[in-house]
Each structure stands twice: as structure tokens, then as C-alpha cells.
Amino acid sequence: MAEDTSSVRLPGVREVAAVAGVSRQTVSRVLNDSPSIRPETRERVLAAMAELRFRPNRAARMLTTARSRTIGILASSASSLYGPASSLDAVENAAREAGYFVTVAHAGSSEREDILAALDHLVEQSVDGIVVIAPQQRVQEAMATVSFVVPAVALHGAGDGGGLVVDQAEGARMAVRHLVSRGHRTILHVCGPLDWAEARARREGFLTEAAAAGVEGIVSAEGDWTAASGAQIAPQFLGQSGITAVFSSNDQMALGVLHAARKADLRLPGDLAVVGFDDIPEAAFFAPPLTTVRQDFAELGRRTVERLVGLIESREIAFAEPVAPSLVVRESA
Asked: What is the bridge-based pairing of β-strands 291-294 and 326-328?
């Protein structure tokens, strides 16, 4: 016979207070982030909450604080791709670390009506603030026409976001510097879709560093971030114009380049060196393992949530420098 759980009561403030050895008023002050609580008392209460798997009642907290402790994430229709998906995960994790609930709304398209519908959905959840993940130019333009009724922070991979971006151009320059240091003098850039701020910044960084190093930089037509587009673009250039190295705007297109190179009987990295961007989990298992530029999505998410919480609490939080990328050197270059 199945156990009857209808009368099971979840642990509440009373139980937390008993385990922590404090009053219920003290537990409430910890929940409301009162500055009057001593650090050691706060830690004891938080430990009791963790032990009991206590979950605060959101409705009750809203009545006492006028806040839901919920952050909304407004994601574009491109959020299934690696960069936006990683940004979304990073923001969710950082929000939970900061003690906030998370609710996500996906805009069905880049049309203003779909964006407004997603925004309305978040507002109906009584969110305290919104993070907008909008990597595409047309989505950013549509967002600019929308009035947010709560504090909002835009997160996308390049542009004027100050410290809320990864330095895409510097990542591309790092890739070119690495290839130049290996003796390559003619380098192809497999370009991403230029509707994306990241793709434009990576192309700019590639061309800037190639010019600074005195090497020839060749830019392909736009790909669409997929391995298929990399495999389609690469044969137009491989074996021609003395190209000995490729910097791909992302790892998936780099996978297509590796595939095209093998079909052309090019040795990797003997005949052709390849560098990608993102360091997706599979990059270390490509054949050969892919040298790539890694983005610190965890730091990006932490900064985004910190700034948004600052806006919610009427505190100005700014970051002077973008998040720094890093180069991961493997066998492909």
C-alpha cells in the first residue's frame, strides 16, 4: 500500500529556529537579509535551513518585503545554441547562489510581439528584475523598443555591455597570435553570422591582429554556427592561396573545417592548423583535439546577477573590464 503523504508538513520557520537555537524572528531576519544579524548567527540559520531542506514561502515573503526574490530571464529564440545556452545556465546558477529563484521565458521569434509576450509572462510572475539574453542584432533592436517595468540587464556577447561581456575581439586576437607564433602567414577566418555581435567582434579582432602581425587575413562568407556550414565553406579555400591555418568563429564550424580537411587529404595539423572559439565540451574529443578560445560563462553569469541585484536594491555595481577569455591549446594547432 502506498504511503499517505497528504498530512506531511514541510519544515517551516519554527523548525528552522529550533534546530538553529534561535527565535523565529531571527530566522525571518535572515530570510529578509537584515544587516542586524551577526555573521555567525546567519551561518547557523542557513546551516539549519540546508539540513532541513527548508524552502521559504514566496507568497509570505512578498507580503513582508514587497519582493519575490525571483529573477526572470528573457531568452531569444537562439537560446538553444551553445553560447546563449551557456549564458542562461550561468545566470541561473549565479541567481540561485545569490538566493534568488529563476523563471525563464523564451521569445518565440525576434518579432516585437513575441518579445512582448515573453516579457508579459515574466511580469506576471512578479519578478524583481530581468536578464535579457539577446545575442542577435535584430533581437537587440526589438528589445530597445520595449519598456521594462522592473530593473533589467542585457547580456550578450559583445557591444557596449561594459563588464557584462566576454572580450570577443581579444579572444580572436589570441587565436591569431597563437597561429602566427607557429609560423603561419596566411590565415583563413571562417566567419559567423554577422547579425550576431559575437561574430562581428571576432571578425574585427581577427583582422586587427592579422594586420598588426603583418600576415594575410582572409575572411570567408558568413556561416551559420553549424558544422555543416564550416564543411561547406572550407573547401572553397583549402589548398588555395597558401592558406595553412584557419580560425573558426566557433567550435562547431571548426568541426566542419576538420571534416573538410580530412576529405581533402590534408594532414592536421601538419598541412593545416585549426583554432575554434567557445571550448564546447566535445572540443577535446575532436580528431585532432581542437585548440580553441574558452569563454568564462560562470564569471559572466555572476557579474550579470550581481549587477541586476544591485539595481533591484538601488545599488550601483559596475565592472570596468570585460571578462577575459583564455586560449586552450590542443593538437589541432
From this structure: antiparallel
| SS3 label, residue 68 | coil
What is the side-by-side strand order in the sheet with 326-328? 216-222, 186-191, 245-248, 273-278, 291-294, 326-328
Q: What grid cell was written down for 180? A: 602566427
| Lookup result for grid cell 594586420 | 211
Distance CA 302, CA 304 (A): 5
Answer whether 128's CB lies under 8 Å from 69's CB: yes
Distance, in Å, from the CA atom of 207 to the CA atom of 225, rounded to the nearest integer, reads 19
The C-alpha angle with vertex 83 and arms to 79 and 87, in degrees rounded to 5, equals: 75
Confidence (pTM): 0.76
- Pair 48, 54: CB distance under 8 Å: yes
The dihedral region occupied by 27, where left means phi > 0, alpha psi between -120 and 50, and beta the remainder, is alpha
What gap in Å lies between CA 94 and CA 299, rounded to an integer?
9
Amino acid present at 137: Q
> Tens-digit pLDDT profile for the chain (333 aa)?
444 333 445 677 788 889 999 987 788 778 766 667 888 888 998 898 888 877 665 544 544 445 668 888 888 766 678 888 888 899 999 988 888 888 888 877 767 777 778 887 887 778 888 888 877 777 767 666 666 667 888 876 555 555 678 899 999 999 999 999 999 999 999 999 998 889 999 999 999 999 999 999 999 999 999 999 999 999 999 877 789 999 999 999 999 999 999 999 999 999 999 999 999 999 999 999 999 999 999 999 999 999 998 888 888 887 878 899 999 999 999
